[in-house]
Amino acid sequence: MKSEHWQQEVQRVATGIRRRVMEHTIKNNGGYLSQACSSAEILATLYVRLMNLGSSTAPMVPPPFTGVPGKDNPEYISGACYNGPATEEYDRFFLSPAHYALVLYSVLIETGRMAPEALAQFNRDGSRVEMIGAEHSPGFEVMGGALAQTLSQAAGIAMAKKMRGQEGRIWVFMSDGEFQEGQVWETFQALSHYHVDNICIYVDINGQQCDGEVRDVMGIEPLDLRLKAFGAETATIDGHDIDEITRAAGTPTGGRPLVVLCYTNPCREIPLLDKRRPKLHYIRFKDEAERSEYEAYFRRHMSVGAAGA
Amino acid sequence: MSTRRISAGICRLGPPAPEAGGKTGKETGMEIVSKIHATNLVKWAKDHPQVVVLSADLTSSTEINLFAENYPNRFFSMGVAEQNMLGVAAGLAREGYIPFVHTFAVFIYRQALNQIVCSIAYPNLPVKMFGFLPGVTTPGGATHQAIEDTAVMRALPNMVIFEPGDATEAEGVLDAVIETPSPVYIRMPRGDIPRLFPADKPFVPDKARVIHRGDDITLLTSGICTEAAMRATTLLAGLGIKIEHLHISTLKPFSDPQVLASLQKPRFGVITMENHSIIGGLGSAVAELMAEHGIGKKLQRLGLRDTFAHGGSRPYLMRYYGLDAAALVQSIELLTGQMLGIGEDDLAAVRLGSGGSNANAEAL
Lengths: 309, 364
Known about the structure:
By secondary structure, chain A is α/β, with parallel strands linked by helices.
């Protein structure tokens, strides 16, 4: 893709992510909307430009839930099939904060890996398109719902690929609140001890968590210095600048795991959200008036064909 | 710095290690085998190249030091960081390796339960968790005593639980573990272990060993309690009390038809005996089975009676908490309503082995 072409494509996907999540939030009177605002460019750049993923091997419209993994369920299908085959030449992607599921589903739709109709199954009984992504949910490979566990599992996969001399890179998307978990630091300790440099972690630092602002709930800064002290290489960027997001992936690591700290705005392109600060974790409209306000904003600025879209 | 780069290529397979402890003949004639896992794992791993070993800073204490020396590229020191260790093990398992996680039993399920649940049990990954020094076999006191591990792990879907009861089973459990495709938790004995069962009758998953036949009382024992019970049952046979004694080495699944048949037999009732809380372990599994099949017989559960324990030697703790042969005799007296007149001296006289690794009771 020529340079301006891929950038346009990333922008189109990012815009599409916000549109789909906003539309869904209005329709269902609830959704993880601020996460779409903060992470749209990061996820769009990862999928369009950075990751070497094969074509999806899963049905465009996800089949219904067919049971959890176990010896009595040999037909079990992993959600990772939407990211293409897990063969050695390809990269692997792990989205850690599983409540970003609606955002990830929107990415899959915008990048042609899943049909738009799939969102109709979101959070419906009997569906695998779950609200908190499980490993059978499209785009997921592991259980990330209990925060911080994805990173350790991705570390094990990265170590296995290194032992076998396989090329593919391991990409992990994390949220900033997860860095309050001790397990995350245990993992960085091990990643640097074993010089695991085939793993690249993008962190959406939107400064938000369930109880409010991260700095009020439990501060994690200075994150770059903390990570460097644990043996990681870091790049600190504007998480909405797709050139910076792209360049950061090429940061020389000297055998260290790479963490790209993406500082983002959880109200990006939906300034209405600013009114709800400091609590942005989950958007449920206070009343019909607020919902109408979002609906009007959506029609004017975000729907297909609208001026801002 | 003792860091190491993971490099590509075929793992170096070293020569088999020298015998660690060797065998000790006791005056009773029972074979006592020392540090079985240390030497056995090295030998066994040669033919299982997909097996990697993870340690949380208890490498000698979990008898994997010889493995680390012989297969340095298959050994991962993960530090005192169990949550990450279990998660990394899950990742390695997803890539086709079979991780053998080693630490003390308590530090597996208490320190990293959510990681076991979400990263290992839910996806049904073949991570094998070797929990050393279960129950009162550690001298380390309450923080080191896994007394509810079976209860916790038994409740997890996909989880399989083994508990070797002697040297033969501590050796054979490796084959059982590798033949079981799911996650497995092993309550692993350490140090000097008696050989109660013939070496050519290895560990068979979900199959009880019938040690004795009888229809007065059915006795089910697991782990170190089997040896303790055998001291008593030898004497009881002489007193005309007919005991059906089953040794249980698979705590989950718990579906051996032999167990059910034996539970239906006894005139006086059923006794379970385990190095674990009476809540959630072998005693509970037996109670569930009896209730489900409408077996209306008395059940006495010997084990830790809903109490924490404290630091001490194994014989002291077994006596103090009622896990020894004397406790079993008392239980049988209660069920049969008959005083047996068996004293401590009588039980000591039929002592079958060394009683375990008391020689190193102070060491962790």
